[in-house]
Amino acid sequence: MDNIGRRDHSQNVDSISIRVRFAPSPTGYLHIGGLRTALYCYLFARSQGGSLILRIEDTDRSRLVADAENDIVESLQWCGIEVDESPHKGGQYAPYRQSERQSLYLQYAKSLVDAGHAYYAFDPPEAIENLRKDHATYGIQTRHQMDNSLTMSEDLVNHRLESKQDYVIRLFVPENRTVSFDDRIKGKIEVESMMIDDQVLTKSDGMPTYHLANVVDDYLMGMTHVIRGDEWIPSTPKHILLYEAFGWEPPEMAHLPLILSPTGGKLSKRSANRQGIPLNVLDYRTLGYEPQAVVNFLAMLGWNPGTDQEVFDLVELEQQFSIDRVGSAPAQFDLKKLQWFNAQHLRRLNTNALIDKVRPPLTEQGVHLPDDDYLKQVCDLVRDRLEHVHDLGLHYRYCFEDPEEFDPVGIKKRWKPDSATLVEQYSDLIEGMDEFDEQTLEAGLRDLAQKHDIGAGRIIHPVRLAVSGTTAGPSLFALLKVLGQTTCVRRLRHAALQIES
RNA sequence: GCCGCGUUCGUCUAGGGGUUAGGACGCCGGCCUUUCACGCCGGUAACACGGGUUCAAAUCCCGUACGCGGUACCA
Question: Which nt has its C1' nearest the CA of A124?
């Protein structure tokens, strides 16, 4: 017992530093709620100068999803959440996959039996099913009616164990105890031990249950804080009892409120789908969201800095995060707000970063990529009206290709009988320009308008329509400048002919 | 059923015995402007309900309702 996986207390620098784990079960891809838990774990660890450990809790072999672990790792990476120790990275307390630590749990469970805090139970499933018809728990009132090492002779118990009959080890939950703990987010929580089952610690397949593995690993791996979802609150008293049985000091607990669907219910696969909310983290990548925006959005769902700042990058979050400012009420997912965050982060990108972001979706949209210099000009031209990386190819395709169609509503509204003539005259003007810049373009157009004794808008609107096919867009003269002299002339002349017919 | 957690504008939230209950998203209006955005200015809208305690309650206490979670050899 003393020589297995003992926590190393000798390095006191280590033992005072904060250690937090994110401990997902690889039964599916990492979803947005799981990511928020990971994020808060990360932010807390980083803000305290501590470490984040990724531990894979794969004790349920029947629900295991083969590539879930990879998905989890990739999701965290995409968001910039770095872990200090993990199955892939290794670390002082390896292995970090619970399936690889099986023998450890068994030994600890047996030590609990030896100390009288746990017992062997041989009841077949039907017996337990029967029990639950009349009693809520397998515990204080019922354990003495069952087949276990509390009710059977030692010889018989040994015989059963030796003949490899199925058995589980159950925790002996004490009577009349008020189990309490002080949650960093929820405050003091109390539960009567009466309400708690004699928890199964090791399953008949030899695997530990979540409760055992979790407690043993959190202890062995030196966790100082357990930060996890709300749904674990009812289990925490069981864990506290386990820590007590082992004679260990429990870590600090912090239970995060859940993320709800926009209608208030549970954010399930079905509800998310119906609301158009991507559920898996990597779906957000596929859809072209900025990881920083997703992180920012999630951080603000349940936490606030106490100031008016709301746009944060990860580093700022690390600096400002405080678990004391995490709210205790669940929060509803709001896609509109995420989109706003996305726009904020996208626009803050410098031009070089922006063109990198924008190239893949453009390619996907079948746009022939121009050279970087041109792409930069386009990005700077439209960046303030970009909400999403896809918007460039979606709404500003004319920056890359001559428009093939002209908005009929726009034509009706802006194309007058004299428009074709004016557009052609302006194209002549442009063709003859030595200086091709915004000022010259504007001055030339206004001159032309004056000559015809009309408002500048009479030319501006048809020109925009001719050059872009649409009535909305960036400043016309800036647009013309970016498009370039020959493109402008070509488009204007072509449009004058086509719209006329 | 039982146990636990929660409840401030539609949404995210600040505040936490005496506030015109503040901000953000969304929505609406205005300004800017050649358009559409951006930006700026303004508007809309909230303390779940009922009892206490108190000079005073959104804030503290107790109930009720509603929501969510747990009650597994799932995590």
Answer: B73
